[in-house]
Specification:
The complex is a heterodimer of chains A (230) and B (227). Chain A is mainly α. In chain A, 79% of the residues lie in helices and 0% in strands. Chain A has a domain at 43-169. Chain A has six helices and no strands. By secondary structure, chain B is an all-alpha fold. Chain B has one domain. Chain B has helices at residues 2-23, 26-45, 49-74, 77-81, 85-89, 95-124, 133-158, 164-175, 177-191, 200-225. In chain B, helix 7 (133-158) packs antiparallel against helix 9 and helix 9 (177-191) runs antiparallel to helix 10 (200-225). Chain B is globular, with a radius of gyration of 18 Å. Chain B starts with a helix and ends with a helix. Classes of the chains: A mainly alpha (230), B mainly alpha (227). The A-B interface holds A 68, 120, 123-124, 127, 130-131, 134-136, 140, 143-144, 146-148, 150-152, 154-155, 158-159, 161-163, 165-166 and B 150, 153-154, 157, 160-163, 167, 170-171, 173-175, 177-178, 181-182, 185, 201-202, 205, 208-209, 212-213, 216-217, 220, 223-224, 226.
Amino acid sequence: MARPSPTARAFGAAAGLLLAVGLYLGLVVVPPDAVQGDVQRIMYLHVPSIVTAYLAFSVVFCSSILYLWKRDLRFDAVAVSSAEIGVIFTGITLATGTIWGKPTWGVWWTWDARLTLTAILFTIYMGYLMLRSFAEDPQAGARYGAVLAIIGFLDIPLNHFAVYWWRTLHQPSSILRAGGPSVAPAMLVPLAVNFVGLVLLYSYLLLERVRLERIRHRSAELRLKRGRRG
Amino acid sequence: MVAEVLRRTWAMTRKDVTVELRARERVNAMLFFAALVLFIFNFALGPDQEKLREVAPGLLWLAFLFTGMLGLARSFQAERENECFEELLLTPGDRESIYYGKLAGNVLFMAMAEALILPLFGVLYNLDIWEHLPSLALVALLGTLGFSTIGTLLAAMTANLRAREVMLPLLLFPLTVPVILGSVRATEAILAGEGLAGVSHWLKLLAGFDVIFLVVSPLVFEFVLEE
């Protein structure tokens, strides 16, 4: 428990390697975008980040259901860890999005559909983390968190429709669309490498964060035991 | 089976309404707060009639939601303050009756506040609400129901937290963005004279939200009340 597991280390090392290769390909090797120029290179971090964030929130949803079903605090540890990492990746998406938005749209922030949706996602899961920090009893905190995670995840598609009908300015998705991707194959390579890299980074962070949670539980247990004896 | 759930739900709602009728803790505060909100908006935005008319649908819903939030925050306080949360849990039958009963009370109190806000709003901001009253009432009902489904669940959840006054709005507003957007846009279109046909997609979104959380909330409500 005291040290990262070999699996975690392998994930971490592979993530570092792939991200280095992917960012080098994306920032240096691949030619700049025909219209947007070098600014577009931020896509190689922006797009994989949000996909990883959605992956993280799906993990929160699944492990929350598993927690309510099995009542094993290990599932809850996975949920809260994954939520934290997901919030960080959402934050990276928002930051890179505004940096990309300034030169291309002329403004840092605009109430475009996808930006808004990402911001809503950020607020929902920030709320989740705040709720966790306010719950005194860990069991109650785990239950409340699980309920909120389920409601929050079901809320995402509804938010999606609402926000899209409200406004759309963002460039439409260029990879997941009918008729195949509209991105040049040369650009897809660093995108894919970075995506795999970020997923590995996510797995590494998740394993480490869950380990931290277990250490925390263990230390609380030990403190309780010592208190009882003394 | 369904009749039994309905009977228990009705008992729960009747209890809340009776308590409210005797103590008048919630509704009076909500009505007064609603009037105050309309008053304050005027100071915040100035007397320009044209400008006010443009932002009126948003203001109307802000008044609805803030007032509703006030009511939701109180919805489990009577049980908490008098330490009868356990007695509430001892109610026979499934917990879903408690949820639906509380929900019905919350919707009712919020609707009462809205019934005051809407005409007052029409008078203060020179809006022709009477002509569109049935359509507006439909949007208000769908929106209020959606806001209260998640609201009732979260009110039960935050009732036992340290920072409940802060946590309820922090959790509720991000989750009800579809309700807020749908209601405001639909109200805007109706006031512009587009009729119900022009807002059918928003109505469907609101109805979809209501149905999803009317089904899911009672399922997870059980885990919130567990002790």
